[in-house]
Amino acid sequence: MDAADKLLKFLQFKVVRRLDGIMQGDYTGIFYGPGMELGEVREYQLGDDVRRIDWNVTARTNRVHVRQYIEEREITAWLLVDLSPSIDFGTSLQSKHDLVTEFVGLMAHLYTRHGNRVGLVAFSTEIDRVIPPAGGRIQTLRLIEAMQHAAPASSNGKPAGTTDLATVLERVQRFFRRRSLVFVVSDFIVPGGWERHLQNLAQRHDVVAVRVVDPRERELPDIGLLRLEDPETGEQLWIDTSHKPTRERFRAAVADRDRQLAASLASAAVDLVTLSTAEPLIEPMLRFVALRKRRRPWSSLGR
Predict the structure, then answer these.
(1) Model confidence, pTM
(2) Which of 19, 49, 88, 92 is the most exposed place for a label (fewest CB within 10 A)?
(3) Residue 110 lies in a domain
(4) What is the pLDDT of residues 255-272, one digit of tens each?
(5) What is the span of the domain harbouring residue 195?
(6) CATH, residue 27
(7) Which DSSP string corresponds to the chain?
């Protein structure tokens, strides 16, 4: 685990120290979610938060009922990590896979050092590997090493096939037994149809979408004829990048995809943090901290 240990020390020095300087080591309610579990349902009383009304029970009994929550002492986190061929892409400081590996190591360290547990689900066209939640430094190194040694789904030289995020989100709900904080880490360059399953997952768990991007996926360079290849299907296409209308259509398509993703996540009440290969991990994490600090403790309860 020498390589995993080296990366962990790098993250502790470059990222964790800065985050600790802002948060004083207390990430409750930011990285851990609300840390609440449904306790019981009772009749509404004057002064109760109307956002906690349980409409199903209310409809059955014809009397307004609200949900009550109890604090959980131990938090379980899951990292759902996209390891499809498109994650191996990178043109800036690092590949998207390297950046995802850093993120996995960072979150695992932040959880396990506070006595909580973290697990990993790696997927491409389907779920490829599951590492059950555990605590401790060994678990952090285990997750980092799993990421470092993860082979791309198309390593045999053949197209791997399309990433089926919808099926993955549906299946993981079967073994996410208790309320957890779930990070869905992907470039979200996937077919549609996953949105409903994300909503279902977010009704039970505190879900955060972690989008991984590279500048060249968002803006075409003016370099003349360029052959593009879809790493998942093997489809190839020649385009003239010196043609300004082509670059503008590409830019418009990216903006439209951004809007669709933002709308889907907002509909599911899922926060979004964007990691870019063009900037160090600490920058988006600071933005994420600022976002979560604005959330009140009950913001994701009763969804």
Answers:
(1) 0.81
(2) 49
(3) yes
(4) 999 999 999 999 998 999
(5) 2-31+75-293
(6) 3.40.50.410
(7) -HHHHHHHHHHIIIIIHHHHHHHTT--TTTTSTT-EEEEEEEE--TT--GGGB-HHHHHHHTS-EEEEEEE-SS-EEEEEEE-SGGGG--SSSS-HHHHHHHHHHHHHHHHHTTT-EEEEEEESSSEEEEEEEE-SHHHHHHHHHHHHTPPPTTTTSS------HHHHHHHHTTT--S--EEEEEE---S-S--HHHHHHHHHHSEEEEEEEE-GGGTS--S-SEEEEE-TTT--EEEEETT-HHHHHHHHHHHHHHHHHHHHHHHHTT-EEEEEETTS-THHHHHHHHHHHHTS-TTTTTT-
